[in-house]
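[job 0412] stage=fold_complex status=start
inputs:
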Amino acid sequence: MKRWTLWVPLALFALFIGVAAYQLTQPKDEFIASTMIGEPLPEFDLRAASLDRPALKTGDLRDGKPRLLNVFASWCIPCIAEAPHLETLRRQGVDIVAVAIRDRPQDVARFLANYGNPYSRIGADDLSEVQLAIGSSGVPETFVVDGQGIIRYQHIGDIRASDVPLLMQKLAEAQ
Amino acid sequence: MIAELGLAALWLAAALAVLQLVAGALSQRQGAEELAALVRPAAIVQGLVAAFAFLMLLVLFAQTDLSVKLVAMNSHSDKPMIFKLSGAFGNHEGSMLLWITVMALAGSLIAAVERRLPEKTMLATLAAQAFVGVGFYAFLLLSSNPFERLPVPALEGMGLNPLLQDIGLVFHPPTLYIGYVGLSVAFSFAVGALLTRQVTPDFARAMRPWVLGAWIFLTLGITAGSYWAYYELGWGGWWFWDPVENASLMPWLAATALLHSASVLASRDALRTWTIMLGVVAFSMSMVGTFLVRSGILTSVHAFAVDPERGTFILGLLVIYIGGALLLFGLRAGTVSEGTRFSVTSREGALVFNNVMLTALLGIVLLGTLYPLFTEAFDVRVSVGPPYFNPVGAIFVVPMLIVMAVGPLLRWRKDSLARIRLPLLIIGGATLAALVLISLLTSIAILPFLGLVLAVGLGIGSFMPIRGRKLRLLPIATWGMMVAHFGIAVALFGMASESAFSEETLAAVEVGGSADVGPWNIVLTEVSPTAGPNWTALEGRLLASYDGGTAIAVTPQSRNFWAPPQETTESALATRWNGQLYAVIGREAGEGRWQLRLWWKPFVTFIWYGGVLVALGGVLALIGRVMADLKRRAIKSRGAIRRAETAA
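[job 0412] stage=fold_complex status=done
writing structure:
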């Protein structure tokens, strides 16, 4: 073995350490942003997820009025946490429609009875198809959709009280 | 009180490690003999004290002491006892404590039994072992204290991830850890030998049982982990090239190479530098794997402790230990002479070839695992999977398997292929026959095809060393080698068959309805609720009959755990000698029909039988080596007594 070859392992290791150290100092972005922002909503036509709210299709979101599209599920714990803040938004006059992910009607009904129902329409997305098509990778997520059915903004994770003003502003911008 | 005892023991063990390091290092100089006497006792006591600390953690989990943060975060009073105990190492802090415990116990053991090496090398080795230990104690005590109390005791624990509440997982982590950490002994031996420039056949003999032992545990751990992923995750796959799986595969590849090169060094006094390098690399791979998993730097299903601060800490340890060892290697290895020469066509030649192939394979897996890390630095997110690993790995695996079938037939130092004509013809003939038969009877993809053909060749080749030898006189270690090589052939056969012949059916079946998969007919007779200690489930009762034979009941479940809330699918298996039926029940598809996912996987079980055979081969080799060592020691001491008598 030549003398210089003895240093190859150390050189390779130094390279690894360099990259690893660089990566460690980078903020880890856990959120996967939708690539659909600025794009029109994909075509869909979902059946109603609960008995007392109508179903949801793309056409419902092109009536000239900006609104929130909330992605939720009855089995989702953070969805419980954000329920009061959605209610706040509704009381400020925001129209909120929802997509219930992989859910059963009786579970959705129980969830809404327990934690409030701020939604004007709820579609059932049994296979996460619509969720994936609009670029959402988790529950809950909330989208600002303008009157032409174009996605304007994406909020990932549960809505906190501090997020309400920002969402109101994004809705105003979408007018 | 128990938590405090554990913590105190941990600090004490750390202090003993410092003592062992300082005394061992100072005793390298002339005239420090008093300190030298401290090293072995310090190592032994350190192991016992660390084991005591781990025992205390087990007690805390057994009692579900919710004033301890780790217990509150990872356990639950409703959990069955066995999962309470396994919960102790199903988390970051506990598993690091297990890691350090195994490492300290391994140190105790070499301190207690290893007398072959020059005392100075031994002290350097124990100092190196303590040096590695100190870093991990610091990591545990400063950033991952498992005994931390909560200011206010929790009312109830948060529970253990339901996927981990499985009997396989009780044994999987400790098995792998013993494997990973056992390699630290090889690392310390290599560092000790570099420090004292004593790279001798004796060094290889001293190191070999440790590598073998660690390697057996790694083999079992990987095999068990693969089977667990197969039946618990409900996807029907047995290997996903997930970073954590790769993290366990890489030390295994390095240890396999090390095992073989240590054999060459032990019997032929060749490959000195190479063996030293592999000794350093094997444990380095364990540490790199741990770093990758624990820092959260790579996304993995196993990443249960994503914490950049810990990542930085482990990275620091890597720089000190791996960087230091490789630096020492660069400085010192040049002064270690290469040892005896040998010809290409010889046992050594074959072993070197396979060593290079194994190392290349290790490089391939490492590159594939780290590649996302490199590209992410340029803001490109990629995930590397089977389309890379399988074909690129095959480039090195295929020649390696061929040499594996032939190599053991060759003699040491110098041989000719003409001498082993007959066994070569037998192996070649069988391989060719398999090739023709398989290509005539089936039309399967190239990789599984190669796998099946080579499995036949290697399966026959692995027992060729018996030829012309008296079975009774064949050393146990040789039996070990044959069984392990045969195990590789068996596992390869299972992998190839699973990939070539699996059949899958996805059906929505109403109660009373049926579905077919491969030779199986499956009838859904009932779907009923059932409950366990901390879950409820919908259980499907299926009657499965193979080829019109008697029906067997299979009961897949869709489980709901409530602490923490999570849904898991429990697959159900029907095992025959020639494969497995794998059934998963999904949610109700509407109108009283249920989603059934069924696979027929011919000979899939051979993958794990093969793994177990490989480990068994290791056990036989270990028994053979240890017995030979004991015999050698007895002869030596008898000789010493006789010499003493003659002198008197």
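[job 0412] summary: Chain B has four domains: 1-160, 166-305+343-389, 416-501+605-618, 503-602.
[job 0412] exit 0
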